[in-house]
Amino acid sequence: MSKMRSEGSVHGRFQPFHNDHLDYALAAKKQCEFLWIGITKYDVTPIDASPLARPRERPNHNPLTYFERINIITDVLMDAGVRRDSFGFVPFPIETPNRLPLFMPASIPCFTTIREEWNREKIEVLRATGYEVIVLWERLEKTIAGGAIREDIVAGGSKWKDIVPRATAMAVERLKLRERLISLSKSNIADRK
Asked: How many helices (H) and strands (E) does the chain have?
């Protein structure tokens, strides 16, 4: 194991925060005293989406606000035994990398994983922006996907409940995420016509 760092960071959209996200955050936390959790696509305003945007940038792929995500992740990490004073949150505009240092200093290393080609792109972007990037693992057999979770929620399924932490499941119900996702999906279809 590498030396304990004073600070480190993880980043993601976390739409919603699932068990693989939890494994990722906990693995990074084991390597630093304080963990910054960078929230990408922190501004989910639909006007930001363009017809050329990647699917991950569409409104129906980003149903949870920044505030909702930080509250869910806080509950999940505290349920996992992580002290509240050992992590914090920061907007993380990976979509506009030149803005990243305005939110988080490049002196804070970025822990990441490789699950798909997009992760390799992010690593190059982060390194080009001046961040040290530490790859925790590479596992290309993605067993949990946010898109599949959102689809199961919309379909009224229950499989998603087995692959998200308890606090995420409770928030999905409390926030009526199914209804929100259905509404966003209808809006997305109407926008494409």
From this structure: 7, 5
Six-digit token pair at 183?
């509404």
Provide the CATH number for the domain around residue 105: 3.40.50.620
Q: How far apart are CA 51 and CA 151, in angstroms?
A: 21
CB 124 within 8 A of CB 40: no
Pairing of strands 133-138, 110-114: parallel
Residues 158 and 172: their CA atoms lie apart, in Å, by 12
Say which residue, 104 or 48, is predicted with more confidence: 104
Closest Cα to residue 84, out of 34, 39, 9, 40? Answer: 34
Read off the tokens for 119: 């992760």
Q: At 191, give phi and psi (nearest 5°).
A: -65, -30
**What range does the domain containing 117 cover?**
5-192
Calpha distance 31→5 (Å, rounded): 6
pTM of the model: 0.90
CB 152 within 8 A of CB 160: yes
**Lowest pLDDT segment from 48-52, 87-91, 160-164:** 48-52
**pLDDT given at position 53:** 47
Number of domains in the chain: 1
pLDDT of residue 2: 64
